[in-house]
């Protein structure tokens, strides 16, 4: 703990990361209290105040139907975070289990599991998610499915490599010698030693899931209007550049801030837990 | 095969979607026959593979042309963009990483680390929009969209404008095409630059702790030489793998950048056909991108083998 | 009397850490005459390796290190020299051998290229062919029977013992006046280590090279060194000729170290205390071994 604080103190960037993430998460959780116009997250129209540059009370301006950009960005954060958490909550256990089994058991099991993983890894991630989204209906749930499908193989790869090197370690051999079951060795001996790497990757990935999800919706393949989404806000606003610049710049910066924060945090975590890249 | 599976398990009748709600039952039936959609899945897969072997990807239901022809038309523009972005990634990213590692702890290192982290922290469409706003609108240094000024025409030979303009001996058009490339390529390259620099730095910092670096220092080899031959080259091996992955990721990110800069490439075609659920075209596009992805990975493996004597020698022995 | 090859006087080193300054060396003094073989013995963490790195000037670049005291090399104060001047000594007048030979050689270059690099320190314009010829001769000196094959190999293709010989050959290639050996060959098999040490001793005797031999193992040092300094927690605790020290260890810590040498007597592993107030007893200097300029 003392060391953790010392590292945080010696690296002001990590502190900035913590701060940014706290800001993003808190505003998403308490969106109903923070957003000046909570009803603007839906299909509300206010033609009196449409397309206004930043001004009070619309600090980030209003969109083409008069909704407050600031309120919509805050609600978009909520959706992005939920999506990120759900995707990782599904992708990580799947990927980790497959990687652990393939890495520890070996033989045919390893061959089959890793070939399947390779098939998924042989298509650029974004393209895979895009083609899946194109063939499914563009909804939040399907977006999560598509992103999850492209995400788990990376955890399989990570844990597979870790498990393969850990299984040669003395403590694993010791457990085997005293007759521990395979399940015990995998989940009780090897897995705890992979946790720092997995945790670090998850922190970084929370940012990257948000990034990919916004990319999908930017292409019109994600969450559909009127649900606020950072990616589709940028796409919509890009049509009105440069005059209505606030329509793209603020959601764009919002993505940047969230992902940057998770990256800083992940880097700090990596240093604290002593994980190699 | 995965592509095929995804394409066929989706709900809905592709023929009906393709023809729209106004088509007659007879039209739909004809199309189903033409696409072998009436037959069992295994037979469909057989047709798919057989056609693929002959280089036939079927007809796009969106453009009504053979998919191969569509791809041939749109691919060069995308490749040109990706190759230029890839070069930027290597030529900017690697040196930044080396500087950062060599002067680790200095202000230069901190600055580079913040900038490269920012680079990987935003999707390329955000950078595309920001760059466009800054350097095309506020400071009109670069063109806003497209590949070439409307006033210029160049005969299409390869589809790569940088090459076609040179073949035509039109230096002015070459300059114009290059000028159009700068912003989109840089937007596409930014996250790769960040990734490459960060990885090179962390690998080099790790290498700097290796005993052979201390040995080199104890012999008083010049510092620049130690950085180059002793720290950079061994750490290039893991970096290259990631650079390959980033290069491949650009194949996906090109979709985003092309959308912003109205770049007439394969990605724009891809999005259009995905939105229209144009099966043959989707399969064809994904297939060609996966093939490119595979090629990039093979090239990277080859390069790694070249600079890593351990792999090179074990392969020769076989 | 000529100046000693190496003279260290009251060397102190501390590191700036999270919890303030930590002193690692509390003022050590030692000297090595021309062609003399001196050992610095102590357990890990006692400050032996940092001493070696200070002599070479490798630690001075660390921003957290604070160093005071004097280090004279052949009569010249190293701290008074410019960075470039100091740099010029490395690899030419002084060189170093490391613990693990295989990981101390660059994995992506052939031995011949690395040898070339070393020889260029002395003769900057030396060509590849000329360097290879010299290197082959040096390798023959360390009893390598097929120098050409070794030169054309990468470090991972050679055995640890072979790499150790290559390192010794490289270290002596430029005829340095001081060789620092930091736990040489500790990573090797005991028999291989013994062979290479014997070889090293023959070579330094022939070239009249002064050696600072750093080790945690008194047994290894016995065969090698003329004089021995025992270091404990950043202080020299005993200093004497090898024979004096082995026949009559006076400092409690030296006696404990002596007991730690495994013997084949069937007594099992001797019991020694990890820590004892006695170990902090003042420096013991054997007869005739005072530091130059000091009253012995």
Notes on the protein architecture:
- The complex is a heterotrimer of chains A (277), B (318) and C (296).
- Chain A has 277 residues and is mostly helical.
- In chain A, 73% of the residues lie in helices and 0% in strands.
- Chain A has helices spanning 2-10, 12-29, 31-34, 69-105, 107-121, 125-135, 140-166, 170-177, 182-218, 230-238, 246-273.
- The longest helix of chain A is centred in the first third of the chain and has 37 residues, at 69-105.
- The radius of gyration of chain A is 22 Å and the shape is elongated.
- Chain B is mainly α and 318 residues long.
- Chain B folds into two domains: 2-53, no CATH class; 78-263, Orthogonal Bundle (MetI-like fold).
- Helices cover 76% and strands 0% of the residues of chain B.
- Chain B is built from 14 helices and no strands.
- The longest helix of chain B is centred in the C-terminal third of the chain and has 39 residues, at 223-261.
- Chain B starts with a helix and ends with a helix.
- The relative contact order of chain B is 0.14.
- By secondary structure, chain C is an alpha/beta fold.
- Chain C has two domains: 32-48 and 82-93 and 178-296, 3-Layer(aba) Sandwich (Rossmann fold); 102-173, no CATH class.
- Chain C is built from eleven helices and eleven strands.
- Chain C has helices at 48-56, 83-89, 101-104, 111-120, 128-141, 147-151, 160-173, 190-207, 218-224, 242-247, 252-259; strands spanning 6-17, 20-32, 37-41, 65-73, 76-77, 94-97, 178-182, 210-215, 227-232, 235-241, 284-285.
- In chain C, strands 6-7-8-3-9-10-11 form a seven-stranded mixed beta sheet, with helices on both faces. Chain C has a four-stranded antiparallel beta sheet with strand order 2-1-4-5, with no helix packed on it.
- In chain C, helix 4 crosses helix 5.
- The radius of gyration of chain C is 20 Å and the shape is globular.
- Chains A and B meet through helix 6, helix 9, helix 10 and helix 11 of A and helix 1, helix 6, helix 7, helix 9 and helix 11 of B.
């Amino acid at each position: 703990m003392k060391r953790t604080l010392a590292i945080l103190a010696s690296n002001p960037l990590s502190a900035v990361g913590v701060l940014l993430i706290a800001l993003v998460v808190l505003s998403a959780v308490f969106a109903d209290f923070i957003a000046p116009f909570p009803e603007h997250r839906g299909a509300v129209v206010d033609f009196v105040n449409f397309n206004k540059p930043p001004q009070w009370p619309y600090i980030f301006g209003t969109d083409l139907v008069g909704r407050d950009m600031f309120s919509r960005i805050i609600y978009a954060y909520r959706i992005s975070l939920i999506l990120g958490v759900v995707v990782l909550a599904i992708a990580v256990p799947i990927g980790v289990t497959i990687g652990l089994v393939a890495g520890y058991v070996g033989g045919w099991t390893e061959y089959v599991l890793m070939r399947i993983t390779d098939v998924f890894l042989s298509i650029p991630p974004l393209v895979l998610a895009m083609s899946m989204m194109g063939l499914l209906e563009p909804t939040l749930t399907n977006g999560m499915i598509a992103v999850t499908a492209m995400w788990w193989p990376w955890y399989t790869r990570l844990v597979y490599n870790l498990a393969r090197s850990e299984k040669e370690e003395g403590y694993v051999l010791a457990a085997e010698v005293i007759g521990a079951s395979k399940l015990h060795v995998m989940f009780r001996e090897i897995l705890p030693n992979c946790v720092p790497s997995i945790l670090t990757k998850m922190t970084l990935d929370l940012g990257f899931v948000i990034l990919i999800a916004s990319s999908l919706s930017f292409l019109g393949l994600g969450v559909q209007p009127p649900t606020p989404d950072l990616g589709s806000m940028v796409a919509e606003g890009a049509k009105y550049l440069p005059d209505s610049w606030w329509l793209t710049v603020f959601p764009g910066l919002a993505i940047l801030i969230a992902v940057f924060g998770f990256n800083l945090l992940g880097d700090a975590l990596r240093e604290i837990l002593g994980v190699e890249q | 095969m995965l592509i095929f599976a995804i394409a066929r398990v989706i709900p809905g009748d592709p023929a009906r979607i393709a023809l729209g709600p106004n088509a007659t039952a007879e039209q739909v039936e004809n199309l189903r026959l033409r696409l072998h959609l009436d037959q069992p899945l295994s037979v469909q897969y057989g047709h798919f593979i057989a056609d693929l072997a002959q280089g036939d990807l079927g007809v796009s239901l969106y453009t009504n042309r053979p998919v191969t022809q569509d791809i041939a038309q749109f691919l060069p523009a995308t490749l040109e963009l990706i190759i230029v972005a890839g070069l930027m990634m290597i030529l900017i990213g690697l040196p930044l990483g080396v500087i950062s590692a060599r002067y680790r702890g200095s202000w230069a290192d901190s600055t580079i680390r913040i900038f490269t982290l920012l680079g990987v922290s935003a999707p390329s469409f955000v950078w595309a929009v920001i760059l466009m706003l800054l350097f095309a609108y506020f400071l009109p240094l670069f063109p806003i969209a497209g590949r070439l000024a409307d006033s210029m025409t160049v005969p299409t030979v390869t589809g790569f404008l940088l090459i076609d303009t040179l073949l035509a001996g039109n230096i002015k058009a070459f300059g114009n095409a290059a000028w159009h490339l700068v912003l989109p390529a840089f937007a596409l390259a930014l996250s790769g630059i960040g990734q490459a620099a960060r990885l090179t730095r962390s690998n080099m910092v790790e290498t700097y702790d290796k005993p052979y670096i201390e040995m080199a220092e104890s012999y008083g080899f010049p510092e620049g030489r130690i950085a180059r031959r002793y720290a950079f080259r061994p750490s290039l091996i893991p970096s290259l793998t990631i650079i390959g992955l980033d290069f491949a990721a650009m194949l996906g990110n090109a979709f985003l950048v092309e959308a912003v800069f109205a770049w007439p490439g394969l990605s724009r075609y891809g999005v259009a056909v995905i939105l229209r659920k144009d099966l043959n075209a989707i399969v064809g596009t994904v297939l060609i991108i996966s093939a490119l992805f595979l090629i990039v990975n093979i090239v990277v493996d080859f390069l790694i083998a070249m600079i890593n004597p351990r792999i090179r020698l074990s392969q020769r022995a076989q | 009397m000529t100046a000693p090859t190496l003279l260290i006087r009251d060397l102190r080193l501390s590191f700036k850490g999270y919890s303030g300054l930590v002193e690692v060396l509390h003022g050590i003094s030692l000297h090595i005459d021309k062609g003399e073989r001196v050992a610095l013995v102590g357990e890990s963490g006692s400050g032996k390796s940092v001493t070696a790195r200070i002599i070479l000037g490798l630690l001075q670049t660390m921003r957290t290190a604070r160093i005071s005291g004097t280090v004279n090399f052949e009569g010249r104060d190293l701290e008074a020299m410019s960075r470039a001047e100091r740099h010029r000594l490395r690899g030419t007048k002084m060189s170093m051998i490391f613990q693990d030979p295989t990981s101390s050689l660059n994995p992506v270059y052939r031995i011949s290229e690395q040898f070339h690099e070393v020889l260029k320190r002395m003769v900057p314009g030396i060509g590849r062919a000329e360097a290879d010829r010299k290197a082959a001769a040096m390798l023959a000196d360390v009893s390598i029977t097929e120098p050409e094959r070794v030169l054309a190999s990468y470090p991972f293709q050679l055995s640890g013992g072979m790499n150790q010989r290559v390192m010794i050959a490289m270290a002596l290639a430029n005829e340095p006046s001081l060789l620092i050996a930091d736990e040489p060959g500790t990573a090797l098999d005991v028999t291989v280590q013994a062979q290479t040490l014997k070889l090293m001793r023959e070579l330094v005797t022939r070239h009249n090279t002064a050696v600072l031999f750093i080790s945690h193992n008194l047994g290894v040092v016995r065969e090698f060194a003329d004089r021995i300094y025992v270091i404990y927690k950043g202080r020299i605790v005993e200093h004497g000729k090898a024979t004096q020290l082995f026949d009559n260890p006076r400092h409690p810590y030296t006696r404990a170290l002596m007991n730690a040498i495994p013997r084949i007597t069937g007594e099992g592993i001797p019991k020694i205390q990890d820590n004892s107030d006695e170990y902090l007893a003042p420096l013991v200097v054997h007869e005739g071994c005072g530091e130059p300029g000091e009253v012995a």
